[in-house]
Design goal:
The chain has 482 residues and is an alpha/beta fold. It has helices at 2-11, 15-26, 34-42, 56-65, 82-85, 99-106, 123-131, 146-158, 175-184, 222-226, 268-277, 279-285, 386-392, 405-413, 426-445, and strands at residues 46-50, 69-74, 94-96, 112-115, 135-138, 164-166, 191-197, 292-299, 309-316, 325-332, 349-350, 353-354, 361-366, 370-374, 381-384, 449-450. The chain is globular and about 65 Å long.
């Protein structure tokens, strides 16, 4: 009788519980049989994908190459199912158009989930995964709203066995680490300001919502694509009209790319690029929540779409021995079509010739000098004036380099490294995303916002309602443990 009860109990242990125990055993060389260690190390992580096309292709490719086994996926557009089913060994993965079915039917067997849907659909499957104890990698921006980001950070703190990662791949690079090391070496003194600019948007933005509609194609589940947002008619492409520029006629409006400029679905240029281009700010300064966020320039108002361009100013509190500092974000174009960018500093000169700023990048202003960071992913780092670079030389290396953004996530999932080895985990990327979305929130509010240290808006408490959107009925998280 006792033997029978023991057998039944073993059957109730989930595969994920066994993998966790095996990984823990593998991490310890004393007191665990070699058989258990071998089973834990050789067992394939079972993965599910929420989206299989577009940016998700990076994750299916990396996962397949790392030896994970896909057992289920959800992709609203059936023409993109090949992103999973055409990979050797994944031909029998269960495919759905509704992400909820992946968790309902396979949740107990999944070890890892990747979420790479449009911005507005990141939160619900990510929260479901973390709450169910499934390791979760979610594309940037982590969430569509401020409050969603804060909730995912809270879920990560509560569900302590879950490994997470946000898809700002540049965080695994050397760029921000080199900049950090220059700052810690005193190369530019105490930082006073960051100026960050982007060439986005590269999609239609700043227009009114079209009044026409199109039939939904057979391959697309429009209800699942809309997800938590308010239902609206499907439109395939922009048509010629008074509001739209001719260059955008014939371009997609929602699926599969231009949703970024639509307020209900995307986060504009901030959501697309700030998790890359401002990543170094949060890595170097570790600032907590912003004290204020203010749209100091806007080319148009926020309506159905984000404006054509804007500049957002944010301030951050002093912390420990570090003084407070200010950030400026530049996106899009002015009314005359020229881009919003900071002025090139006088120190950006070589042999008497003034040089132009790169089209995307960062300028750091310190009490003892300046630094230029080129590109979206904190690529080339240079002290200004350029002669200063030669004088100072390379800074001492203080930080461990990453083996790769996906690889560090996989290593933590397998138990080869601690969960925090996945360095853009939700404890880091949650507050970061909340600060980024504050830029969009102050644009929607059309005024300066003041926040307390917990990230709550205190200047106008009613604006906190805009920091959260109640999901459309049935499209919220299936579980939420925060």
């Amino acid at each position: 009788m006792k033997e029978k009860k023991m057998t039944e109990k073993r059957k109730n242990i989930s595969r994920r519980d066994f993998m966790g125990a095996a990984a823990a055993a593998a991490a310890c060389s004393i007191g665990f049989p070699s058989l258990i260690r071998a089973q834990g190390l050789n067992e394939k992580l079972q993965v599910g994908f929420i989206a299989a096309g577009g940016q998700a292709g990076s994750h299916t490719g990396q996962s397949h190459g790392a030896g994970l086994q896909c057992i289920a996926f959800a992709e609203v557009d059936k023409t993109r199912w090949g992103g999973v089913l055409e990979k050797k060994g994944w031909e029998n993965a269960a495919g759905y158009q509704d992400w909820r079915k992946v968790f309902e039917k396979h949740g107990k067997d999944l070890d890892v989930v990747f979420v790479a849907t449009p911005d507005h659909s990141h939160f619900a499957p990510s929260m479901t995964a973390v709450s169910m104890g499934i390791h979760c990698y979610t594309e940037k921006p982590l969430t569509w709203s401020v409050r969603e980001a804060q909730l995912l950070a809270a879920a990560y703190a509560r569900n302590t066995k879950v490994v997470t990662q946000m898809g700002n791949q540049g965080h695994a690079g050397d760029g921000w680490r080199t900049a950090y090391e220059y700052v810690k070496a005193g190369a530019i003194g105490e930082i006073k300001e960051f100026h960050t600019w982007t060439n986005r948007p590269v999609w239609p933005q700043g227009y009114k919502r079209p009044t026409y509609s199109d039939p939904v194609p057979d391959n697309l589940d429009w209800d699942a694509w809309i997800g938590p947002a308010a239902m609206r008619p499907y439109i395939a492409k922009y048509r010629k009209g008074a509001d739209i520029e001719d260059r955008h006629v014939g371009q997609s409006i929602y699926h599969s790319f231009a949703w970024r400029g639509i307020v209900d679905f995307g986060s504009g240029a901030l959501g697309d690029m700030a998790c890359h281009t401002t990543d170094g700010i949060y890595s170097i300064m570790k600032p907590g929540y912003a004290a204020t966020a203010e749209p100091i320039v806007m080319n148009g108002e926020v309506g159905d779409q984000w404006p054509k361009g804007m500049i957002v100013k944010s301030t951050y509190r002093a912390k420990g021995n570090r003084p407070g500092f200010t950030t400026y974000w530049y996106e899009g174009n002015k009314a005359d079509g020229t881009p919003y960018m900071p002025e090139a500093p006088e120190e950006l000169a070589m042999r008497g010739r003034k040089m132009k700023l790169p089209r995307t990048g960062n300028l750091l202003y310190g009490t003892k000098g300046k630094m230029l960071v080129e590109g979206d992913y904190w690529g080339r780092v240079r002290l200004l004036p350029l002669e200063r670079q030669k004088e100072f030389g390379d800074p001492p290396k203080l930080l461990e380099r990453s083996p790769g953004h996906h690889k560090e996530f996989f290593m933590a999932c397998r138990g080869e490294k601690p969960r925090e080895f996945s360095q853009s985990n939700f404890s880091y990327s949650g507050p970061m995303t909340a600060n980024i979305q504050l830029g969009n929130l102050c644009a929607r509010a059309g005024k300066k916002l003041e926040l307390n240290e917990a990230g709550k808006i205190v200047s106008d408490p009613k604006i906190n309602d805009l920091a959260w959107r109640e999901p459309r009925n049935g499209w919220g998280p299936l579980e939420m443990k925060v």
